Amino acid sequence: MLSEHYELIETLATNFAIAVLFLLIGLAIQDVLNKGNVPKYGRWFVWLVLFLGCAGFIAKGIIQAFWEAGM
Fold it and tell me: Which run of H or of E encompasses 57?
């Protein structure tokens, strides 16, 4: 049974690992922003860039799922 679902398990593990990586990056950025004297504008810009990167990853996954389902 495991060999039949190996690709699905691998995909889920990869997506989970990338989500954890985004979480750790967010925590590291929050720590750096708190320890430095970063103005509010800079904080908003940093979080916007991080959010757009995460949103791009999620959009890629959704597009890939629709693309594979259509074929």
Answer: helix 40-70
